[in-house]
Specification:
The protein has helices at about 45-50, 75-80, 100-110, 115-125, 145-155, 175-190, 200-205, 225-230, 235-240, 255-265, 295-305, 315-320, 325-330, 355-360; strands spanning about 5-15, 15-25, 30-35, 60-65, 65, 85, 160-165, 195, 210-215, 220-225, 250, 250-255. It is of the alpha/beta class. It folds into two domains: about 5-215, 3-Layer(aba) Sandwich (Rossmann fold); about 295-365, no CATH class. Helix content is about 35%, strand content about 15%. About 40% of the residues are buried. Helix 3 (about 100-110) packs parallel to helix 5. A six-stranded mixed beta sheet has the order 6-7-8-3-9-10, sandwiched between helices. It is built from 14 helices and twelve strands. Bound molecules: adenosine-5'-triphosphate and magnesium ion. Adenosine-5'-triphosphate (ATP) binds near residues 14, 37 and 39. Keywords: ATP-binding, Nucleotide-binding, Transport. InterPro entries: AAA+_ATPase, ABC_transporter-like_ATP-bd, ABC_transporter-like_CS, P-loop_NTPase. Pfam families: ABC_tran.
C-alpha cells in the first residue's frame, strides 16, 4: 500500500513573496488526489516542497514518520526513493535516449544488473505506450511522448507515492483520456498514493478520490471529490466550469470593480467563456476490466463514511448516491436523506472558505443514521 503523506501548516515564501501559507492536508494511502489552482498559485512549488527540493519556511510534511522539512539530508535521500515524480516540463536529459532516461533512477539508486534494468524499463515503457521509441532522443519525439517517458521514469523504482505535475499539459483530449485511464489503472495495479496537479477539468472531475484547490496563497479546500464537485464556493465553481465570471482573474486575483463590470456584461448576454456548466458528482473512472479492484477505493469508503456527518449536505448526497444498495445498507444510509432533515436543521448553502474538517463542522446538520463508525475488525474482516 502507498504511504500516507501528512502535510501540516506548511508555508513557503521566496524572499518577501509568500507563495502559500498554512497548508494542511493528508493524502490518504493509496488514494488518488488532484490539486487544482490558477497558474502561479504555487502548485509546482508545493510538489517540490513535498519531496524536499524546496525548503518550506514552516510546517511539516510527514511520510512514514519522517518529517522531510526538518530531517537530515541522509533521511531525505531515503524518503525520496519512495517517490516517483513527473515534473511539469518532463525534465528528461536531452542527450540521453528514452531508454537511458527511464533507466536512470535504477542505475543511480539500485544495484540491479543491466538485464534486470532492461526488463523493468521495457515493462514501464510498454505501460505508457512507448514501446519501440527506446532509442529516440527527447528532442525527436512529441510533447505527449516526452510526458509519457517522464511518467515511465517516475515509475521504475516502484514508488509508494507518485507526484504528477500537469501530466496532461500539451496532450490532445484523446491522449488525455488515455492518460487518465493509465493513472487509474496504475493505481489499481500498484496501490500507490498519487497526487496530480492539473488544469484539466475533465480529469479533475473523473479521476481522483480527493480534490483540493490552491488560491490566493491558501489551500481553499481539500477533501473527498464529492465536496468540491458539489461546492458552491465561488472560486471552486468558477474553476471547475472554466468561467471568466468569478473571483479568479487573468492575473490571479480580481478586484470587486472588475468582477462587477464583468458580471454586468454577462447579465447583458456576453459569453462568459465556459463551454459547459456541469454540477454535481459525475461517475469516477474505473480500472480497465480485468485489472484488480482499486484497494484505495475500498479503504476510502470506510474513511469517507466515518467523516460523512462533517461534510456539506450536497457532498453527503453525492457520496451516498455513489454507494451500491448493499453498501448503503451496510453503512445505514439511504439516498435523499437530506430531504428528511427538518428545514430548520439544514445548513445554509453559504459558500465556505475551507472544507478542512474543523472549519466546517459547526454548521452542518445532524443526519440520522449517517454517523457510521468502522466496525471492529474480527478475524474474518469487517466486510
Ligand atoms: N525557485 C524559485 N524562486 C523564486 N520564485 C519562484 C521559484 N519557483 C517558483 N517561484 C514563484 O512561485 C510562484 C508559484 O510558482 P509555481 O510554478 O508553483 O506555480 P504553478 O501553480 O505551478 O503555476 P502553473 O499552473 O503555471 O504551472 C510563482 O510566482 C513563481 O514565480
Ligand atoms: Mg506548475
Amino acid at each position: 500500500m502507498g504511504a500516507e503523506v501528512v502535510v501540516e501548516g506548511l508555508t513557503k515564501s521566496f524572499g518577501r513573496q509568500t507563495i502559500w501559507r498554512d497548508v494542511t492536508l493528508t493524502l490518504p494511502p493509496g488514494e488518488v488526489s488532484v490539486m487544482l489552482g490558477p497558474s502561479g498559485t504555487g502548485k509546482s512549488v508545493f510538489l517540490k516542497s513535498m519531496i524536499g527540493l524546496l525548503k518550506p519556511d514552516r510546517g511539516k510534511c510527514v511520510i512514514n514518520g519522517v518529517d522531510i522539512v526538518s530531517c537530515s539530508e541522509r533521511k531525505l535521500y531515503d524518503v525520496r526513493k519512495l517517490f516517483g515524480v513527473l515534473f511539469q516540463d518532463g525534465a528528461l536529459f536531452g542527450s540521453m535516449n528514452l531508454f537511458d532516461n527511464v533507466a536512470f533512477p535504477l542505475r543511480e539508486h539500485t544495484r540491479k544488473s543491466e538485464t534486470e534494468i532492461r526488463q523493468i524499463v521495457l515493462e514501464k515503457m510498454e505501460m505508457v505506450g512507448l514501446t519501440g521509441a527506446e532509442r529516440k532522443l527527447p528532442g525527436e519525439i512529441s510533447g505527449g511522448m516526452r510526458k509519457r517517458a517522464g511518467l515511465a521514469r517516475a515509475l521504475v523504482l516502484d514508488p509508494e507515492i507518485i507526484l504528477c505535475d500537469e501530466p496532461d499539459s500539451g496532450l490532445d483530449p484523446v491522449r488525455t483520456a488515455y492518460l487518465s485511464q493509465l493513472l487509474i489503472d496504475l493505481n489499481a495495479q500498484i496501490d500507490a498514493t498519487i497526487l496530480i496537479v492539473t488544469h484539466n477539468i475533465n480529469l479533475a472531475r473523473t479521476v481522483p478520490d480527493n480534490l483540493g484547490m490552491l488560491f490566493r496563497r491558501e489551500l481553499v479546500m481539500f477533501g473527498p471529490r464529492e465536496v468540491l464537485l458539489t461546492s458552491d464556493e465561488p472560486v471552486v465553481e468558477q474553476f471547475l466550469n472554466g468561467r471568466r465570471i468569478g473571483p479568479i482573474g487573468m492575473s490571479e486575483e480580481k478586484d470587486t470593480a472588475t468582477m462587477a463590470a464583468e458580471q454586468r456584461l454577462a447579465d447583458a448576454g456576453h459569453h462568459d467563456g465556459s463551454t459547459e456548466d456541469v454540477r454535481g458528482v459525475v461517475p469516477q473512472l474505473q480500472p480497465t476490466p480485468g485489472l484488480p479492484e482499486r484497494q484505495g477505493v475500498r479503504r476510502r469508503k470506510d474513511r469517507v463514511m466515518s467523516i460523512l456527518h462533517t461534510l456539506p449536505p450536497a457532498a453527503q448526497e453525492g457520496i451516498i448516491e455513489s454507494l451500491t444498495p448493499a453498501e448503503q445498507q451496510r453503512y445505514g444510509v439511504h439516498p435523499h436523506m437530506m430531504a428528511t432533515v427538518p428545514a430548520g436543521h439544514r445548513p445554509s448553502p453559504t459558500p465556505r472558505s475551507n472544507v478542512g474538517s474543523e472549519r466546517i463542522q459547526g454548521d452542518l446538520a445532524d443526519i440520522p443514521q449517517s454517523q457510521w463508525q468502522p466496525p471492529q475488525q474480527g478475524p474474518g474482516g469487517g466486510a
